[in-house]
Predict the 3D structure of the following.
Amino acid sequence: FYEGGAQGMHLRHGSQPERFPSLHGTPQLQPWWAAGYSFSRGHFIVNVPYDQYQPMIFQGEEMSIGIRGFSIGYDFYAPERSVCFHHYNVGKNKNVRNKVHHFWENDRKYSGTGKKAMQRLLGIVHMNPEIEPSKWDHTEEDRYGLGGVRTPEKFYATIGIDVKEKSVQGHLCSFVDNGDGKMHKMFTKFLRTDGDYEGMGIDYTHINYQFVDPRPGQE
């Protein structure tokens, strides 16, 4: 979903509650990358490094990493069962855990920095077409930018994101999961073979699917 704020409109994904897996014996394909639960070969962080030119960014980080990773050819999977978790500072944990310092305490000291960083973040992944490219920082974009295997536009079209209208097709879980891992079964049949010189992961040139909300207007 899109949300606003001092840094401007940006996309974020919500959290998925614990549930029984739809598939067994295999991790399940997902569209999103999650900062709080990410395991990979070391070359992922080498090829998709955290952008050092995005200070004061909190929300938006997962979109940046996920879409940049997609463009290089990485696919994201959820394991069959959870192996770790963490508590937020809510309920009985609040008084203890909320004593730590938060980076947003420095908002006033670095006023405007986050907004500029967000323009760069969104610009790199082609998510703010209304902003003239000359208005945001392109420093080391070759290092912190996109790959050449897939385009962000392919990602947006596939899962129903409209970057111009700042809207998304709802009920995406009905496609990703649907009780039988529909997205996984449809897309993984196009996995490239090891050693494919054209790239890695799923070959999206064979995928023309575009998700549309099956229950518009409903919760």
